[in-house]
Design a protein that fits this description.
Layout (H helix, E strand, L loop, with lengths): L8 E4 L2 H7 L25 H4 L19 E4 L38 E8 L7 E6 L8 H12 L10 H12 L3 H9 L5 H11 L19 H12 L6 H10 L17 E5 L6 E8 L2 E8 L5 E2 L5 E2 L1 H15 L1
Antiparallel strand pairs: 1-2, 3-4, 3-7, 5-6, 6-7, 8-9
Helix pairs in contact: 3-6, 4-5
């Protein structure tokens, strides 16, 4: 559940606070605040100059007003990551963060929000509600970088991962640590993009294409994320052992347990950046592979890494998804 404590209060600030966030550099979209030993994040700090943020359609909901934007103050202290799970999506529950008139009833005709899901028993039966015009991966791409590492460096056998690299992987997938995933990527021989693409092609994704750097800027559709999560649950990403290991590591810290975390998901990964860009998550909920995404809808809340996520809207999307899953 989304945890709110005395050190994680919310207050309304002037728009200039959020605007300052948009100047921050990012690795794979979110997660540059921690200081993991190793090479510094690469050119993600130039993302806004090299990959312009497209203006999303405004037909579904009006853009948030400056006075509606909120930030978390002070920055919450990081806590120990939860013990790895063996996978599984938990029990589907309604979010207690969404009540009454705040709940979504439908995404039909919506062009700035989407939920996508498929039963693990029949992954090809994909349901999509809503649509978005942009779907950059941001920090959901960290899972792909680590999958490529498992494939090329340890032959799909997580027991061969050295202790240092094991710590980097945990930091990348629980705290969304940008430095940690750069460190892992530096261990991949040859082209990291090609290694990621091989992982994707092996599970049937013929459209997603990863670059060698700045993987957060790659386009990874919610539908293909559902395919990926179903393949993980089925033990088909790199190897059965590698899939199980990845599922066990995808357990966000409490401060990032909004969205899918409010409806019972134990295994999921999110990505976010600014108040005008995408906030998204992919994961396993109950017996379903799922992905939810919003493009700039609702208040943007500053996360532990200094980047901003649309927490309220993600909670609403997760609540709608829970009702669709029954």
């Amino acid at each position: 559940m989304l945890r709110r404590s005395g050190t994680y209060g919310l207050r309304v600030t002037r728009f200039r606070t959020l605007a300052a966030v948009s100047t921050l550099g990012v690795l794979a979209g979110c997660g540059t605040a921690t200081s993991t030993t190793g090479p510094s994040p690469d050119a993600e700090s130039t993302v806004r100059a090299t990959v312009p943020l497209q203006a999303p359609s405004r037909t579904a909901e009006p853009a948030p007003k400056a006075q509606d934007l909120v930030v978390a103050v002070p920055r919450p202290a990081e806590t120990a990551a939860p013990a790895p799970q063996s996978g599984g999506g938990g029990t589907v529950t309604r979010s207690d963060e969404v009540t009454g008139s705040n709940a979504l009833t439908s995404l039909r005709g919506d062009t700035r929000n989407a939920i996508v899901y498929a039963p693990l028993s029949n992954p090809s039966a994909v349901t999509t509600e809503g649509s978005v015009s942009t779907w950059r991966a941001w920090s959901t791409s960290k899972v792909l970088v680590i999958a490529a590492y498992l494939d090329t460096v340890v032959d799909g056998d997580p027991s061969k991962i050295p202790s240092t690299e094991r710590g980097w992987i945990s930091a990348a997938l629980t705290r969304s640590d940008g430095n940690a995933v750069v460190n892992i990527r530096s261990k991949i021989p040859g082209s990291p993009g090609a290694a990621i693409n091989r992982v994707l092609r092996d599970i049937g994704d013929s459209t997603t294409s990863a670059p060698d750097r700045s993987q957060g800027t790659m386009w990874w559709s919610p539908r293909e994320q559902v395919r990926f999560m179903a393949a993980l649950a089925g033990g088909r990403v790199v190897s059965k052992a590698a899939s199980s290991y990845l599922l066990g590591q995808m357990n966000p810290i409490p401060q990032h347990e909004w969205g899918l975390g409010t409806i019972g998901a134990r295994t999921f990964k999110g990505g976010w950046l600014t108040s005008s860009s995408e906030t998204r998550q992919m994961g396993i909920v109950g017996g379903y592979a799922v992905a939810i995404i919003t493009v700039g809808v609702g208040p943007a809340v500053v996360q532990t890494d200094g980047d901003a996520a649309h927490v309220q809207q993600m909670n609403r999307l997760a609540d709608l998804l829970a009702r669709r899953l029954g």
